[in-house]
Amino acid sequence: MASQTELTTSRLPGAAGTAPAGQAAAAPQGKRLPFVDNLRILLMCGVVVQHLSVTYGAAGSWMYTDPAPTDKLTSTLLSVYNLIPMAAGMGFFFLLAGYFTPGSYDRKGGASFLRDRLIRLGIPLVVYGLLIEPLVVYIAHGLPGSYWSFYPTYLHRVDSIADGPIWFVELLLFFSILYVAWRSLARSRAQAASGTGTVPGYRAIFGFILGLGLLSFVVRIWWPQYDQPGPFNLPAGYLLQYVCFYVLGIVAARCNWLFTLTPRMGRDWSLIALLATLPFFGLALPYVARTGEQAVIEMLGGFHWLSLVYTLWESFVIVGVCIGLLVLFRTRWNHQGRLARSLAASAYTVYLIHPLVLVGFAYAFHVVELYPLLKFGIAVLITLPLCFLVSLVIRKIPLVNRVL
User: Fold this and answer.
1) pLDDT score of 9 more than 90
2) Residues 6+ apart with CB under 8 A from 35
3) What's the whole-model pTM score?
4) DSSP character string of 96-132
5) What residue ranges do the domains of the chain occupy?
């Protein structure tokens, strides 16, 4: 466990802090945080289910879609579900990754930290791009002839080894390199302070939400979400959100915010996110019903009122979901059994191999004629445990567990 990347481990970045009464006390430095591990399991399951939803009819982009026609009910239900993980899922991952970055740097020093990042992020990035992604594309295209004839053609046409969902690992590696450069320039290697910061007030959080929403709207005028990928195959329309939440995670680590967020804040911001959803759907759904696909395009970017409403709603949702789930898991699910520890340890590997599992299953399953919503449900029940099972087997391979 100790050798795993911060993507799959949850170790406190600094010494213990004193939490307010009624909250979970901070663990000593280097101790695991079960509630964060449990959160990662939930988030990873959300990634898998989201990609399956696009496979079976939700609006969005994925590597393979079932060729059977999708009815309007299935498409609407899966698309509405998809909005939440699209808004909050990956930003939450970057928040957690940023939170554990300072402590890892403090323990290892700049050179060892960077070497560790290159091993645990760089090697999977290359292996995915050269081995996993081509096989996924080959299956998604219907097994066109011999794989050994397809492979060199694929390598000749592809413009990046970071195609597909591996962009997350690529971007996290960039962030890690920039963090090392910043710490070197700042000449700061002090251990993370314990409980030295005050949890942000409601006014500051509102300001952050509005600023993120407005700036994201401006960014998406030039880089709409439907126009992905951007430079280096990165999701340009979400890049600002990911940068902000990675930096926010670093600040949260220094200020011990994960342990000073109060239960009341968790309830309030969850409710605020829910209340923000009501006017968004009240404005967006009737307009989408009238104008169809054009409304979806306008919502995902460009200088349009629907894009502004969407980015503001998205900002409320990610902040509310992050605060609400952090408090909920810290107070209710800050413990693990053997199964949960195994699932958490495999979460990073699941991210790397889930495209192959999902596309392989969906391609084999496409010959079965069923109602698309039912096919989606069956696919979730089969592929979700299969991803974790395959990951567990992979991690038992000698030397592989030193990277994953």
Assistant:
1) no
2) 24, 326, 329, 330, 333, 334
3) 0.88
4) HHHHHHHHHHHHH-HHHHHHHHIIIIIHHHHHIIIII
5) 36-402
